[in-house]
Amino acid sequence: MKAKMINGKIVADEIRTTLAEKINEIKGRGVEPCLATVLVGNNDSSITYVNSKQKAAADLGINTKDFRLDSKISQEKLIDLVSLLSNDQNVHGILVQMPLPRHIYEFSILKHINPAKDVDGLTPLNAGLLLHGRDCLVPCTPFGIIRLLDYYGISVSAMNAVIVNRSNLVGKPLSILLLQRDATVTICHSRTKNLERILLEAELVITAVGNSSKFLLTDSMIKEGAIVIDVGNNRRDNKVTGDVDFVSVSEKASWITPVPGGVGPMTITMLLYNTVKAAASINFITN
Description:
It is a single chain. By secondary structure, the protein is α/β, with parallel strands linked by helices. The protein folds into 2 domains: 30-116, Rossmann fold (3-Layer(aba) Sandwich), CATH 3.40.50.10860; 139-264, Rossmann fold, CATH 3.40.50.720. Helix content is 40%, strand content 16%. A 6-stranded parallel sheet has the order 1-11-8-7-5-6. Helix 1 (8-28) runs parallel beside helix 10 and helix 2 (44-60) crosses helix 10. The N and C termini lie far apart (48 Å).
């Protein structure tokens, strides 16, 4: 294998060690960091994600509140719960697991999350602050990717970066973070024409499609020495795989993230980071 491995578990473990020290400091001031998770419905993937986030928080010494709601809950009742948590002084982080059932308008829910507790970084205020380069709670996966690049000393300045994802969770905020570091960014999606030609021009490729039956990044789609960050999550035959044909791409890329063990551990770790940040300074947004 030619490519160097970007090991998310190693980086995540180091950050969590630092967070544990910070949590002890906060508790010494009489503050008990608390993360509240809200899960609507019985989507298997969402249940797995919430369980892992709850466990990671508890393992680090963060108090947790876990709300499991029926998929038929009304939008009004969900807003009532989110508003209640937003006003609860003992709750520092609020995570509403996406996606929500179709009858619930996600933006309406996000608007009712206190931005200072928005550990997913999805509220309109945090999205706007990120756009303006101001201090805010940053979406966890993009934040984790940036921390990985920093850890391995990979500068994206002047790089041609291609992101295959345009979601509010990954593609859009990641594009802003990369632009802030002077990368030239192209966002691709399901309607993009000549995708392979665009990918072949990229020095940095980040893919977050999550459907390997429709998109699989192979060695013929990247240039020699490209950096490849795989955010994909596909479950097949009780195995987790990404968006990348790891074996072939590893022979051509300079750096690569594995799945599992790459971006995944960082996403949860940055959620914990945001929770600790919120607990340490509830009013940071207005400072």
